[in-house]
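OP here, attaching both records as promised.
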Amino acid sequence: AMVKEIVKPNVDGEARWVKKMGKLHFGYKRHSVTDENGLVIAEETTPANESDIKHLEKPLEKAKLPQGTPVYADKGYDSTANKDVLKRM
């Protein structure tokens, strides 16, 4: 039998595997808040297998955006709870 891939053992106790678009990825996700020029002003790092939906509020709080600042996020953050967070900001 031929070995196609050797999987290294998990040496990072906090990183996780996630399957995205049919491929496995090992590591982390960064939830970033950027300014209008694309510069990162706040972020949170989570294991790769955690859903985005739980990680909108914390980076926004760190960014300390002025009230009424438009916020754009992809559909991974879409939830009633996150819409309520945005209404309060």
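Record two, same layout:
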Amino acid sequence: MKYLAFPLLLFFLSCSNDDSTSSFIDNDLIIDDTAAVSIIALDSDSNSKLILQDGMSVEETTSSLGRYHIGKVIRVRPIDEFNIEVTNFAPIDLEDITIIATINGFEKDIQLFKIKKLRAHAQRVMPYLFIDGKKHTLDIDGNKVDLTSLVTSGVNPNHITFNFSGESQIAKKLMSLAKLNWEIAYHDYNDDNNPDRNWKLDPTPHDWRRWSSFIINYGYTVLREEYKESILNEPLFKNDKVLQTREEREATYNKLINKPFYRLGVVAHVSGLGGGSTLGVGPGQLKNHVTKWSYAVINHEIGHTLGFKHSSSWAGTITDSNGIKRSTDILINKVNERVKSGELDQLPISIDNYYMPRDFDFKNDTDPGY
């Protein structure tokens, strides 16, 4: 049998036949095989490690993490035929999450396992539970599924994909981000440490922690029906101050939703930079997005990633013939004002549920507030 040790796996099984139920503990990774779908917890240092923590290198907090889909902030990926890696890219604790697997040869998606408690930014490498646990689970419709055929061979990494589900309001908000096509990666744009460049020297783990919050909240905001309707119904200008038709505004909005990739960075000396897949904002923007609710800078840079110049409403502010300022920055901030007033539901991440509130403590923050 092949599996990775993180930590060393110690199984205590009470029965050996395929239909048995048992409970066992793997160094505090509690696995309940008595439930129809096995239940684990990733809620402490004994059963998971943390990503994006102070003291980690730039390499550890950027390229080593790889990409994740914003609609799958709980990323599960195969390591090999017998092991998977579970990572929570959301900076909040979650409960009662179900990991869903689509496996070639199985008629329906299956409930691979449940996570009773999942701490913010937790990561765990673990074997498939059916290798040494019970050999059955449920599909998404609640029907029993036999996994015995996978015990010896494991699962070809190219033949399985993963998703997650949950019934809590916060889980549903995170799941709604699947409407976005964005893959996300954290990137050091100043790897030669040139102080004259407009990118921060050695972005810190707390930069990426705050980015993990900001990109979720921004994505949730652009998906709000109120923001989409304001895009469709208010006059906006494309490059060179040319008025867009409604069809063009809708096409631009859809282009934003379907953007395939954003490589996030942290700027210096300026408020933001953007273009293509490049998206950067300054430490000040990262600090105040949960307190001041201003998304103008990130929205401006998003406009650049969509191909717009400052002579447009998507990456600038254009005054129309009636003297009214037209900008998507204004529109998105109006939406967030309605959130602040309580008229609209709250954003997924707030100072109340973010797991490390000191990241937003201005008194102890030495970063400049660009």
